[in-house]
Every structure is written in C-alpha cells, then in structure tokens.
Amino acid sequence: MVFLNQVKPVILSEKEIPISMNYNYFMEKALDLAKKALSAGEFPVGCIMVYQDKILVTGSRTGTTGKSINEIDHAEIIALRKLAGLKKNINSKEITLFCTLEPCLMCYSALVLCGIGEIVYAYEDVMSGCTGCDLTKSAPLFRNNRIPVIPNILRDRSLKLFKNYFANPDNTYWMGSFLADYTLIQ
Ligand SMILES: [Zn+2]
Question: Which of 9, 48, 90, 124 is deepest in the core (most CB within 10 A)?
Fold first, then answer.
C-alpha cells in the first residue's frame, strides 16, 4: 500500500467546476448504468472510473432486489473490485470516479484506501452520503487524505431515476426512508 499525499478537503460549488474534463459526458455514462439498474428493479446507482480520459471500469448497484439483498454490492465497490483485477500500471490518483449518487461512508473509505483522485457525483445522498463528513477526529489515513469532490453534475437526471424508483411500490429497498421522503417531495 502506497501512502497518499496529504490532500485538503475540497468541495467545489457549481460555479467553480473546471471545464477541463467533460463531466457531463462521463456522468451520462454513469446514468446509463443507473438506468439499467432501475430497469432490473435495483436501486438506481451507476458509476464509472475515468483514467486519462478513458473509461477504465464501471459498476452498478446490485443486491437490492429479490432474495439476495445486501449492503456490500454498492456500485463503487463493484467498480473498485474490477479495478483491483486490472493488470495495468495505473496511478490511482489520476482516476476520477463518476457516480450518480453521493458515495456512502463505506464506499468513501474504500475510495480513500484505493487512492482515488477525485469524486464527481450527481445526486446528494442526504441519508448516508459522506463526502462532506467531518473526518478531523478519524484515523490519520482518512483525516489526511480527503478526496476532492464535485457535486451536482446532471443532478436532476439522477433525481428523476430515484423518483421513479421510490414511486414504484414494488421496490422495497429503503422505501419509507429519509432519502425516499426527501426525493419524493422534490
Ligand atoms: Zn456506498
């Protein structure tokens, strides 16, 4: 494990988002995966990891429908597992994660441990999103290696998928939750 350089937390407002990378283009790709998850009855989260302007790996949420419901197979964890399986010499600090939902604490921690360089997300997770958490009292690895975050890229498109998900009574995962209520009143 290579220890990371210290990175101060950086959360950019919409007006400060750099135009060097095509954020909308890559978020569209993540949204396509979220749409497929929704069609399969899964929680509509998709993500991609971009390295040197190319899509390296993808992930989408599984384990939210049927008999195999679990809290492990988040889109980001699926993508990180694929990343670990690549036999390529990759500088993880140059990888940008595009995710249609703000990462939770489990995924954020895994992204820090893997040295991912940047997080771009569409819809804020008011229930379990952790990119803005105060980690000043956490262990040094997490305290000293915050990942720069860009929120709200194509937010409304992701919101629409979550509205569709929570409006369907066949979907039971996190139904009636704070996130469901927050989503459905918008
Ligand atoms: Zn997660």
Answer: 48
Integer angstrom CA distances of residue 6 from 87, 92, 134, 147, 181: 27, 15, 16, 10, 37
Q: Which of 16, 28, 71, 76 is catalytic?
A: 76
CB 119 within 8 A of CB 148: yes
Tell me: pLDDT of 137 over 80.
yes
Catalytic annotation present for 14 = no
Nearby residues of 186 by Cβ (< 8 Å), 6 or more positions away: 159, 163
How far away, in angstroms, is 88 Cα from ligand 1 center? Answer: 25
Between 12 and 54, residue with greater pLDDT: 54
Ligand 1 centre distance from Cα of residue 184 (Å):
21
- Please determine, for residue 73, whether its predicted confidence score (pLDDT) is greater than 90: yes
Give residue 120's Cα distance to chain centre: 7
Look at residue 8 in the predicted model and tell me its pLDDT: 44
